[in-house]
Design brief:
heterotrimer, A alpha/beta (350), B alpha/beta (335), C mainly alpha (293), A: 350 residues, alpha/beta, eight-stranded mixed sheet, four-stranded antiparallel sheet, 14 helices, 12 strands, 23% strand, globular, B: alpha/beta, Rossmann fold, 30% helix
């Protein structure tokens, strides 16, 4: 079965009129709660997070360390080791079916087949003793029952799709013979081999040089236009988000604080944390004079996830916090145009 | 050595030599022979790097992995022994000095490392870590304790944290401890080897601000090695771009970012993802991968990926030329 | 299985209130091994008081008696009380075990440090270690014993020699990896002299794996001593040790197998407990092993 050849389509033109939110919800995370049992206490890594991924869209999930973005992603595919991780509540629906309730066998048929994942470090995510062709072939033979020869053909096809030159020869090579950028492409090829509906990319370019990162991001954009796979891009780099994502979800200390279309987020972020993050990034503004002064800081540190926080988790560091913020956890408020935020202050038009 | 307090250091004027003058620095590693009895292959990690650094200013060195920036920085400090070239600190040639003669000069050249987790000895308390350099240079116990406490204040850490162990601190706090340690001997130059790359964005801003404040208060010069161009732009007075062991372009920070001349610099700048949606057009995407430092391409090292390469580029390696106002470029063209 | 957050919290509270229970639950190997070893060690240490008879006291009338109220483990071919001899034998085993562990570790650390820091020394040392490891330890120990008069001291020395290469290899590989750590480079940058780097930065970070290795050497040495004594090349016969008791018991196994059984049982239990202790320590000290509640 070959990939349907599609001319690279301007994604925005084709799906343009339709807002991402109008399309089918392919993955829905609903009030997810995940805890880790450690000897020092219970760590609430994900504390009631809800967001959705729609067909054919690229969603950015942004946050700093400890915000729960990776844990959420791993929970989708149920890759967390069950002690010490415990899913304490919520649901993760893939096309309507709750993944958390499925049997392990059924999950196996979904992993790599309908929902795929790529990771940060391509060297440790690829088996060093198998050739790339064998690894890609393994996925298709398992999920689609292809024979050896057909599987190899598919492997070569995928390597070509991800722009690896001389794919026929490369399919017989081992991971250590590939450079970092090529390994990441091979991983992407492996992930897409069974034409999944969802691709979860967990910090896919963080470990790569910036010029290689540019190549990979370009590749992801092209693939998304050609194959229509929905991509959940997890990253801490707001620049990457701006370049690739249509919608963005911002997480802080295990909770979602903002959810908006990318353009709106960068133009008019509503949550003080998002604003602080954007303000604290040094900019490569074209042609502008360098500001040698201080960067805007967000004072303090991320709170420990071991203590339950009754109010807003960002309150201790927030420039506009009021007494209510430390007492009551703000709910998500819709601001219109697909933009929602969890902050007491935005209600008051701050 | 007498304990000293910070001195006022003003930017250099006129005839005094630059604080740091690096001339044609080389570091080669001998790799194994490709064939037994064949020619010995070398990794030319740093292959003829030259630049100067003035007092109380910051030189940013950028480049991708394998370009040799970290190696160059450590070689200047003689943490790695140079294979060739000269390093002059305040006019004194420190390159080939015996380790014994060099020891007093070490006080002036300190370093902050990238990994906040591995750069502190897990078995020592934070206070001991910061006081260790003072103990090495003969400070009395009382003076050490006083200075260590002062340093903790200066980097924004609480004094009672001196008794804690590294694992009790966050990444950003550990980096502050590393900075305090580097400040202990009142150095004139601190090499910052990717000091904020391993930190979250919001903590990066705190640490960058701390470094800027310290430079203004104490007049320390920084050799700031990083791959994050935005941070480098923010903190540097001058910037040098390295590729495969050589400097390909060097200029004042404003000039470099406003008017990059070398094709690699341009590609690098255009590759950085900006937090501005809709900016995708006009990006230069380089083809291919970074060549291995063991077998750099002939002629201009960048020619295999350069969109403007011609025949001359495969044969002749370009020298750094001054194209005006202290802006130097190593390229056969001047587009 | 869904474990709710409340149940987890309850378990954590229980652990906090009864720390010993939680400790045993989390580290069963360490707890069991430690307990057994303590029992054996106490029994051996208290041998002069616990043992009902003098272990060398012979009684021609009470030879080869089966276990009874007067002689819990029976008597041997010379009428000596097997229970007393077994208790005293424990002292020999533990002395040898601890002695070898300490000595082999100390010598191994010095050689390993040298090897890790100096390329030339490394080349020579590793070839010597390879050579030593190629000879079966027991043969090496026996050969060494033939050169001297038998005593506990010489037995300790003879067993130490084949155990040294293990420590050297461990220390060497630790040193090689610690040398590359940024905190060691940082120490150089702030002017720390070489000996201070060794003592302040390198050595303290090798302690944890060394402790685990030392416990395994202890277990190995206890068995080695038993082998040597069994072969007649170890502890001199005047001093009761589990090994030479078993050697003597061979001849009369049909009549009184207790002479082999009891020392053998004690030997097995002791070595088992030391090994469990070592495994438990290793898990305790390794931060990567997932800690379950």
């Amino acid at each position: 079965m070959t990939l349907e050849a599609k001319a690279p389509v301007d994604r925005e033109r084709a799906l343009g009129a339709q807002l991402p939110a109008d399309r089918e919800k392919v993955l829905e995370i609903d009030d997810l709660r995940v805890c880790f049992a450690t000897p020092d206490g219970i760590v609430r890594a994900v504390d009631g997070v809800s967001y959705s991924l729609h067909a054919g869209e690229t969603l950015g999930v942004v946050g700093e360390s400890g915000c729960g973005k990776s844990v959420t992603a791993m929970s989708v595919l149920r890759l967390l080791a069950s002690p010490p991780a415990v899913v304490a509540g919520g649901a993760i629906r893939y096309r309507g079916t709750d993944l958390l309730g499925l049997s392990e066998e059924r999950m196996r048929s979904i992993r790599g087949n309908e929902i795929s994942m790529i990771f940060q470090d391509p060297m440790t995510s690829l088996n060093p003793v198998l050739t790339i062709g064998e690894q890609i072939g393994e996925a298709v033979r398992l999920h689609q029952g292809l024979g050896r020869r057909a599987a190899r053909e598919r492997a070569v096809e995928m390597l070509a799709l991800v722009n690896i030159p001389d794919p026929r020869r490369r399919a017989d090579e081992y991971p250590h013979q590939f450079s970092g950028g090529m390994r990441q492409r091979a991983m992407i090829g492996l992930a897409l081999a069974c034409h999944p509906k969802v691709l979860i990319a967990d910090e896919p370019t963080t470990a790569l040089d910036v010029t290689i990162q540019a190549q990979i991001l370009e590749l992801l954009r092209k693939l998304e236009a050609e194959t229509g796979t929905a991509i959940m891009m997890i990253t801490h780099d707001l620049g990457v988000v701006a370049e690739t994502c249509e919608r963005v979800v911002v997480l802080y200390a295990g909770r979602k604080v903002e959810d908006a279309p990318a353009r709106r987020l960068f133009a008019a972020a509503a949550h003080p944390y998002t604003r602080g993050l954007l303000a604290s990034m040094p900019r490569l503004a074209d042609g502008a004079a360098r500001s040698h002064g201080r960067l805007t800081e967000i004072p303090g540190m991320v709170p420990s996830l071991k203590e339950p926080v009754p109010g807003c988790s960002f309150a201790p560091r927030c420039p506009v916090a009021r007494p209510r913020c430390t007492r009551e956890r703000p709910p998500l408020v819709a601001l219109g145009d697909g933009h929602s935020v969890a902050c007491w202050e935005t209600e008051r038009g701050a | 050595m007498q304990p000293t307090t910070s001195k006022e250091r003003t930017p250099d004027q006129g005839d005094a030599p630059p604080l740091l003058d690096v001339r044609n620095l080389k570091k080669y590693y001998g790799a194994s022979r490709a064939t037994p009895g064949g020619a010995r292959r070398y990794v030319r990690a740093v292959d003829g790097v030259s630049f100067t650094l003035e007092r109380a200013s910051t030189l940013g060195i950028v480049g991708e992995s394998g370009c040799g920036k970290s190696t160059a920085a450590k070689t200047i400090m003689r943490l790695i022994e140079p294979s060739g070239g000269q390093v002059l600190l305040d006019g004194v040639d420190i390159t080939a000095m015996s380790r014994r003669r060099f020891r007093p000069y070490r006080q002036q050249l300190q370093i902050v490392f990238q990994d906040p987790y591995a750069s502190l000895n897990p078995r020592m308390t934070a206070g001991a870590i910061v006081a260790e350099p003072l103990a090495n240079y003969g400070w009395s116990r009382a003076d050490r304790e006083a200075r260590a406490a002062e340093l903790f204040d200066r980097v924004g850490l609480r004094r009672d944290a001196m008794r804690k162990y590294p694992h009790e601190f966050s990444g950003g706090q550990r980096q502050r401890i590393g900075i305090a340690r580097a400040l202990a001997l009142d150095p004139k130059l601190i090499v910052c080897d990717e000091p904020v790359s391993a930190l979250d964005v919001s903590i990066q801003a705190q640490v960058v601000n701390l470094l800027i404040d310290l430079q203004q208060e104490l007049g320390i010069a920084y050799l700031f090695v990083a791959h994050d161009l935005a941070v480098v732009r923010h903190i540097s007075d001058r910037v040098a771009v390295m590729y495969l062991g050589r400097v390909v372009e060097s200029a004042d920070a404003d000039r470099l970012f406003a008017d990059p001349r070398h094709p690699y610099t341009r590609a690098l700048l255009s590759a950085v993802p900006r937090p501005e949606p809709g900016r995708r057009n006009g990006r230069i995407v380089l083809k291919g991968d970074v060549p291995s430092p063991m077998s750099p391409p002939s002629g201009c090292r960048f020619h295999t990926r350069c969109p403007h390469a011609v025949d001359r580029c495969t044969r002749e390696e370009p020298e750094l030329r001054d194209v005006g106002a202290g802006h130097e470029v190593a390229c056969h063209f001047d587009p | 299985m869904e474990v709710t957050v409340d149940r987890l919290a309850a378990r954590l509270d229980a652990a906090r209130r009864r720390p010993w229970r939680a400790f045993v639950r989390r580290h069963p190997l360490l707890a069991v091994g430690g307990l057994l070893l303590v029992v054996v060690a106490m029994a051996s240490l208290a041998a002069p008081w616990l043992a009902p008879y003098d272990p060398t006291e012979m009684n021609a009338l009470q030879r080869l008696k089966p276990p009874s109220a007067q002689h819990w483990f029976g008597t041997d071919a010379l009428g000596r009380d097997v229970f007393s001899r077994t208790l005293w034998g424990g002292r020999v085993s533990l002395t040898v075990g601890i002695g070898v562990a300490l000595l082999a570790t100390s010598i191994g650390v010095v050689i390993g440090l040298l090897s890790g820091f100096n390329r030339w020394a490394d080349a020579i040392v590793m070839r010597v270690m390879d050579g030593m490891m190629a000879i079966p330890g027991i043969l090496l120990a026996v050969a060494l014993m033939t050169l001297t008069r038998a005593s506990i001291g010489t037995v300790v020395l003879a067993i130490t020699v084949p155990e040294i290469p293990r420590v050297v290899r461990l220390v060497r590989s630790l040193v090689l990896s610690i040398r590359e750590q940024p905190y060691v480079q940082a120490a150089e940058a702030i002017g720390t002299r070489f000996h201070a780097i060794l003592l302040r930065h390198v050595l303290p970070n090798t302690v944890t794996p060394l402790i685990v290795q030392a416990t395994f050497i202890c277990a190995s040495a206890v068995i080695f001593e038993a082998y040597l004594s069994f072969l007649g090349a170890g502890t001199p016969p005047e001093i009761p040790s589990w090994g030479n008791m078993m050697a003597e018991g061979r001849a009369v196994v049909q009549l009184a197998f207790g002479i082999i059984l009891f020392p053998g049982l004690f030997l097995g239990l002791t070595v088992l407990s030391i090994n469990l202790l070592g495994d438990g320590l290793r898990d305790l000290l390794d931060p990567r092993v997932a800690r379950r509640l």
